[in-house]
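Final report, Chapter 2: Outcomes

The project's central promise was a pipeline that accepts a single protein chain and returns its three-dimensional structure in a standardized token representation, suitable for archiving and comparison. That pipeline is now operational. To close this chapter, we reproduce one record exactly as it appears in the project archive, with the input sequence first and the structure output second.
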Amino acid sequence: MACRNLIRRHFAEQLIRPHGLVGRWIIGPLWNRRNRVLNDKTLQALRLREHEQVLEIGFGGGRLLAQMAKIVTHGHLSGLDASPIMVNRVRRKFQALVYKGIMDIRLGSAEKLPFTNSAFDKVASVNAIFYWRDPARGIREACRVLRPAGLFVLTFTAKEDLDRQEFGIPSFYEDEVISMLHKAGFYRIDVSRDRDAHRAFLILTAEK
């Protein structure tokens, strides 16, 4: 039991901030596989256009950024992640787009986004809210960097399924997140539930 708890704690630490060889070679590809359906559903909810300015908070392995890059061909994509390993990995992966100025990959936290007010048309985050030190502040920051009438898509594993995995990371009820969105200044909040082979998940869309 003690060994199992130690493994779970170590894995939770890697999920929060990937580091070392495990973080470099395992966590990114694992996120891309495990969150594939969540990324696909988030992409649909974003309803992207080719000229838009778009931000992803907590891009992990970079799968959603790759999908968005196929659509946003005349706009600009930004990605932010708290893990230096993921930032370096994704910068290398998209070095051609970064060099051309089409994509911007930054290290930072959701609670203090390094972007100006009203910089983006759309903001997305997939299964990252659990790792934010202050989720309410992170949501307020997402609202701040969105333009008026901008769209925020927040996708995350349902509380009951995340708790069952016993990783020891925070989980949220639907109503908790909706309340945070309202308090941050979002309105027209819609919620849809879906599931993949691993878990149930929620997709919240909110307009500024």
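Archive annotation: Residues 2-16 form the longest helix (15 residues).
This record, like all others produced under the grant, will remain available to the consortium after the project formally closes.
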